[in-house]
Write a structure and sequence with these properties.
This is Mobile element protein. It comes from Candidatus Accumulibacter phosphatis. This protein is mainly α and 157 residues long. It folds into 3 domains: 42 residues; 44 residues; 48 residues. It is 72% helix and 0% strand.
C-alpha cells in the first residue's frame, strides 16, 4: 500500500473539496492515485470540521472573489456554509493586497540607500584593517615560533 505525505494529501484534498471541487476521475488520472483512495480521502475530510482543512491558494482566491460583493450577513452565511470565519477572509484579503503592492512602495528611499552604502564602505574598511592586523599577528607568532626553535633558550616570546 502506497503512503502519501500529509502535505500531498492536503494539496489533493484542497482540489477535491469546495470551492474547487475537481472531478475525482480527472484528478485520479492527473496525480496517479486510484479513484477509490480519493473517494475515501474525500469522505474522511467531509466528516472532519471544515476549519481543519487546508485551502489552496486558488481556493482562497476563489473564496475572496465569491465574497467580494456580498454584504456582511451574506458573507457570514457563506463562511458558515464553507466552514470559515470571516476573519480568515480578511487575513487572505490582506495577504493578497500585500502581494499585489506596488514595487515602488517596497523600495528604499534614496537617503536610506546612500546611508546603507556609506555604512557598507565603513564596514569594509574596518574589515580590511582587522584582516591586516590579524595577518601581522600571525606573522609575528610564526616568527616567534621559528626563533624559539632556532634559539631554545630564547623562549620568552
Amino acid at each position: 500500500m502506497a503512503r502519501y505525505s500529509p502535505a500531498t494529501k492536503d494539496r489533493i484534498l484542497g482540489r477535491l473539496l469546495p470551492p474547487e471541487s475537481a472531478a475525482i476521475e480527472q484528478l485520479a488520472k492527473e496525480v496517479g492515485i486510484s479513484v477509490s483512495t480519493l473517494e475515501r480521502w474525500r469522505a474522511e475530510a467531509l466528516t472532519t470540521p471544515a476549519r481543519g482543512r487546508a485551502w489552496s491558494a486558488a481556493a482562497r482566491w476563489e473564496a475572496l472573489v465569491a465574497t467580494a460583493a456580498l454584504d456582511e450577513h451574506a458573507t457570514s452565511a457563506w463562511c458558515r456554509q464553507h466552514g470559515l470565519y470571516p476573519t480568515q477572509l480578511d487575513v487572505w484579503r490582506q495577504g493578497a493586497l500585500d502581494a499585489l503592492a506596488d514595487p515602488q512602495e517596497a523600495r528604499a528611499t534614496p537617503q536610506a540607500t546612500q546611508a546603507d552604502k556609506r555604512r557598507i564602505q565603513e564596514l569594509e574598511r574596518d574589515l580590511l584593517r582587522k584582516d591586516r592586523a590579524l595577518a601581522e599577528t600571525t606573522a609575528l607568532l610564526v616568527l616567534a615560533k621559528k626563533l624559539s626553535a632556532i634559539l631554545p633558550g630564547h623562549a620568552d616570546a
